[in-house]
Write a structure and sequence with these properties.
This protein has 321 residues and is α/β, with parallel strands linked by helices. The protein has one domain: Rossmann fold. The chain contains 11 helices and 12 strands. Strand 1, helix 1 and strand 2 form a beta-alpha-beta unit. Helix 6 crosses helix 10. The radius of gyration is 19 Å and the shape is globular. The chain starts with a strand and ends with a helix. Bound molecules: nicotinamide-adenine-dinucleotide (NAD). The site of nicotinamide-adenine-dinucleotide has 31 residues, from helix 1, strand 2, helix 4, strand 5 and strand 7.
């Protein structure tokens, strides 16, 4: 296969490229990435031994999207502005990359009739009540509640509309919170690990009781592989490893693993409009595509902590406090 991976220098995209080459070493990947602050070439050190080409480019430029979509078998789109806090400060780039960018890719897909997969998020469904057993599924109503999730929701609607109108070979996945190597230290788990190692205060929004559903990034990649290969066109698949956890408990697990004091926890003002609970019911992808997650939360957390311990000097320099 010749794959166009967009946003492949970021957290999940870089893990996906490595995952893909491990399993399909003779395939070709073109990685088209704008190289925003979230990109890191170091995420793909050693990748040159495969059929890999890196292109610096922006999917919100229609010509760029068209040029690099020509002659590929499939596009998998990870390119996005991904940090909710940044979208609250200024959402212009979110609209450009997450909506206009996807529109440009869909136009290319329409022109060249190629397979397209949109990597989306559970945040498009909004927030669930804290003390409930409710979960999101493929029939849940879209209800995005911050600028980031609104742009991701808009992109999903475009993909579905292009399927309905033009019958294109497209699929969408909405995945829960990822963790693992290569995640930018602005995000909860890497920031907690790095601050804990340095014995610095660990900022926690509000009371820390918000619930997220965690998946190790490699499990997300295996779900994407199976959707690319076996997913039915026009369908959406929700992905989760069934790890519902309160933020405060995730932080405490990291502190315990690193043998550090809970006194480092620093409760700070809550994020405006903070969603309290996201949890996914992944039975459709399990039932229809026979996908299973493999890595338990404890195992994944240990792998992640080891990654940041090994590369501490490097991440220290990148750290946003
Ligand atoms: N991280 C999660 O927990 C999570 C969960 C579910 C879904 N997602 C989705 O997965 C995708 C990847 O997330 P991530 O955490 O790896 O993000 P990330 O911020 O780590 O990486 C995004 C990458 O996209 C690139 N990029 C941004 N705008 C671009 C543009 N206009 N053109 C080309 N490249 C561009 C950046 O340079 C960066 O390399 C996103 O679409 C996100 O919405 C993430």
């Amino acid at each position: 296969m010749r794959l166009l991976v967009t946003g492949g220098l970021g957290f999940i995209g870089s893990n996906f490229i490595k995952y893909w080459f491990k399993k399909h070493s003779r395939d070709t990947i073109i990685n088209l990435d704008k190289v925003t602050y979230a990109a890191d070439k170091r995420n793909l050190v050693g990748i040159e031994k495969y059929n890999y080409t890196f292109i610096k480019g922006d999917i919100s430029n229609p010509k760029t999207a068209l040029t690099y979509s020509k002659d590929v078998d499939a596009i998998i789109n990870f390119a996005a502005e991904s940090h909710v806090d940044n979208s609250i400060l200024n959402s212009s780039n979110f609209v450009r990359s997450n909506i206009i960018g996807v529109h440009n890719l869909l136009e290319a897909v329409r022109k060249y009739e190629i397979r397209f997969h949109q990597v989306s998020t559970d945040e498009v469904y909004g927030s669930l009540p804290l003390n409930s057993k409710l979960k999101f599924n493929e029939k849940s109503k879209y209800n995005p509640r911050n600028p980031y999730s609104a742009t991701k929701a808009a992109a999903d609607h475009l993909v579905n509309a292009y399927f309905n109108t033009y019958k294109l070979p497209v699929t969408i996945s909405n995945c829960s919170n990822n963790y693992g190597p290569n995640q930018h230290p602005e995000k909860l788990i890497p920031k907690t690990i790095i601050n804990a190692i340095k014995e610095m205060p660990i900022p926690v929004y509000g009371n820390g009781l918000q619930v997220r559903d965690w998946i190790y990034v490699e499990d997300h990649c295996s779900a994407l592989e199976i959707i690319l290969k076996k997913g039915e066109y026009g369908e959406t698949y929700l992905i989760s490893a069934n790890n519902e956890k309160r933020n405060i408990d995730v932080i405490k697990s990291i502190l315990k693993e690193l043998n550090k004091s809970e006194k480092l926890i620093d409760f700070v003002n809550d994020r405006p409009g903070h969603d309290v609970r996201y949890v996914i019911d992944a039975r459709k992808i399990i039932r229809e595509l026979d996908w299973r997650s493999k890595i338990t939360f404890d195992e994944g957390l240990r792998l992640t902590i080891n990654h940041y311990l090994k590369n501490l000097d490097y991440y220290n320099k990148k750290m946003v406090i």
